[in-house]
Amino acid sequence: MTQHAASYTNPDLLGDSPAWMSFIWLAFGIAMTLMIIGIYYLPVDWWIRGYLYMGTLFLTASTLTLSKALRDRHEYERLVNRVKSARTEQVLSKYES
């Protein structure tokens, strides 16, 4: 079986498509650019713009950190469940024979 065919039978090998990754990065870049431009053209004092830029920076950084932490947690739980499942199968196979 080829690696491409194996990726459809083994859910651990499935990944995001290049088109999806491109869309995600493009959407992120457009959103960040429009936010920065929008703040720049606000009719407010410079210190308010600075505060909004700082808020945008920290909100973006915390969102990226949160998404990474959630992904890591999901992968950890998936690994733990696979180990528990393998142990259960091992115990059941001993009792079946």
How would you summarize what this structure contains?
The protein has helices at residues 3-9, 18-40, 46-96. The chain has three helices and no strands.
Helix segment tally: 3
- Count of extended strands: 0
Helix and strand composition category: mainly alpha
Structural domains: how many: 2
Overall shape: it is elongated
Mean pLDDT: 85
Distance between the termini: 31 Å
Multimeric state: single chain
Query: Helical residue percent?
Result: over 70%
Element-by-element helix/strand order: HHH
Query: Strand portion, in percent?
Result: under 5%
Radius of gyration: 23 Å
Largest sheet: none
GO cellular component, one term: plasma membrane
Pfam family, one: YiaAB
Organism: Deinococcus marmoris
Protein name: YiaAB two helix domain-containing protein
Topology:
Blueprint: H1 3-9, H2 18-40, H3 46-96
Account of the 3D structure:
This protein is an all-alpha fold and 97 residues long. The chain folds into 2 domains: 41 residues; 54 residues. It is built from 3 helices and no strands. Helix 2 packs antiparallel against helix 3. The radius of gyration is 23 Å and the shape is elongated. 0% of the residues are buried. The model has no long low-confidence stretch (mean pLDDT 85). One of its GO terms (biological process) is DNA damage response. Keywords: Membrane, Transmembrane, Transmembrane helix. It holds the Pfam family YiaAB. This is YiaAB two helix domain-containing protein. It comes from Deinococcus marmoris.
Which terms would index this structure?
YiaAB two helix domain-containing protein; YiaAB; mainly alpha; transmembrane; transmembrane helix; YiaA-like; 0% strand; 97 residues
